[in-house]
Known about the structure:
The chain is built from 2 helices and 20 strands. The protein is of the alpha/beta class.
Amino acid sequence: xxxxxxxxxxxxxxxxxxxxxxxVTGNVVIGRNVxxxxxAAIRGDWGQIIIEDNCNVQExxxxxxxxxxxxxxxxxxxxxxxxxxxGATIGRNVMVGMNAVVMDRVEIGDExxxxxxxxVRADEKIPPRSVVVxxxxxxxxxxxxxxxxxxxxxxxxYMQLPADCHATLKPCExxxxxxxxxxxxxxxxxxxxxxxxx
Length: 198
């Protein structure tokens, strides 16, 4: 659902994929290979939202701001399921975990990782490569090369997802039983815990 608001029409690059059950309103610019999942609300009614190339905004995320503010997601920002970004700047190759909340005028430095359920208070400036957890937030360590490599791999999967959705996603009627020849999905991707234990 793409809506014009007060004369502003969202700009969405043709390679991006915005799910039909997401809502994009007003002064929003979405770059190349961006994935926006169902239930996401990206509301540029009172200010501008810029989502640079290769970002993903997953299911049920909210991106909004106070009046006169620009929200910026820099290249390869990875916004996990249910997260809220309100009036903040998210640096390049940052991961914001599921159901995290990043408040007004926050700047998350490049290649940082914000943990699931984390609450980042307004006006905070998080240095690059920080691991941020808790409510209220706390910087607990620096992001290692291994961690940022793992994060980047995960984001690259999402960078492929818009093309896959354009090529194969379509409404359908459900099957009534599992076909005997149904293939198992294989990716070779490991969660952080699997990688550390392997």
